[in-house]
Amino acid sequence: MKLSKALRGFARGSLATIFVTGGLDVIQHPEGRAQVAQEFLDKAKKVVPMLPDDNTTIVKANAALQLGAGAMLGLGIFPRIASWLLITSLVPTTIGGHPFWGIEDPKQRAMQRAHFNKNIGILGGLIFAALDAKKPTKKPAAAAPVKTTAKTHKS
C-alpha cells in the first residue's frame, strides 16, 4: 500500500470521526441543539417552507445525514459525494449552531466563536476531500514522433 493511499484513508477517517460521533450524540439528545438553532431554523422555514415545523425533527434529520455521510467518508464509500453532503450540512449547522455574533456574554461568545472557527477548518478539510481525485492526474506524455518509412512507388 502506498503511503499516500494510507494517508488519504487516515485523513478521511479522522475527518469523519466528528460527524459520526456528533451525529450519533445529536440523534440521542437533540433538544439542546434544536433550542440553540431555533432562531436560525425559524428563519430557514420561511425560505424553505417544506421543512418540518418541529425543530427537533430537523436537527435529528441533519444529524442522521452527518452520521451516514460521515460513515461513508470514513469507510471510503463514495468519499467525494459524502464530503459534498457533509459540506451542505455543515454550513447551516455552523451558522445555526454557533451564532457567536448574537451572544453578549464574552466567555460564551468566545466559546461559540471557537466552535464556529473549528467548523470553518473542518469545512476546508471537507472541500479538500470533495475535490480529491482517486488517482493523481498525470500529464499526458508527449506523443512520440511518428517514424515513416515511406517508399516511393515508381510507375
Lay out the secondary structure.
Elements: H1 3-28, H2 31-36, H3 38-47, H4 55-75, H5 79-97, H6 106-131
Can you put this structure into words, describing what you see?
This protein is an all-alpha fold. The chain has one domain. The protein has six helices and no strands. Helix 1 packs antiparallel against helix 4 (55-75) and helix 5 packs antiparallel against helix 6.
User: Rg, please?
Assistant: 24 Å
Average per-residue pLDDT, rounded, comes to 89
What is the share of helical residues?
55-70%
What is the total tally of β strands?
0
> How many domains would you count in the coordinates?
1
Strand/helix succession: HHHHHH
Strand content: under 5%
Secondary structure tally, helices: 6
Low-pLDDT sequence parts: none
Computed structural class:
mainly alpha
Question: For the report, how would you describe the main beta sheet?
Answer: none
Distance between the termini: 62 Å
What is the molecular shape? elongated
